[in-house]
Amino acid sequence: MATENFATPDLADAANDALIKPRAAANRFIIQPAIDRGEVAPGCDIDTLCLLPALSLRAGDNPAAR
């Protein structure tokens, strides 16, 4: 799917909407309070920070399943 993702913009958009955006939103729910409490630097790029865990979880690459 990753190769097809780059070759087909519609598939890339659908994958982003179905997989990446919901995980990023969930991460924001966790990270924003940490920023508010001073546990994460206030000047961080929260958009990128929220995407990192979402992008690292690929199907078949779940360390918790090991």
Q: Can you give a write-up of this model?
A:
This protein has 66 residues and is mainly alpha-helical. Helices cover 68% and strands 0% of the residues. The chain is elongated.
Radius of gyration: 14 Å
**Total of DSSP H or I helical runs spanning 4+ residues:** 3
- Main sheet attributes: strand count, strand direction, barrel closure: none
**Care to count the β-strands?**
0
- N- and C-termini, Cα separation: 23 Å
> From the helix content, strand content and strand pairing, which structural class follows?
mainly alpha
Provide key terms for this protein:
66 residues, 68% helix, mainly alpha, elongated
Concise account of the structure shown:
With 66 residues, the protein is mainly α.
Would you spell out the secondary-structure blueprint of this structure?
Layout: H1 2-7, H2 9-36, H3 46-56
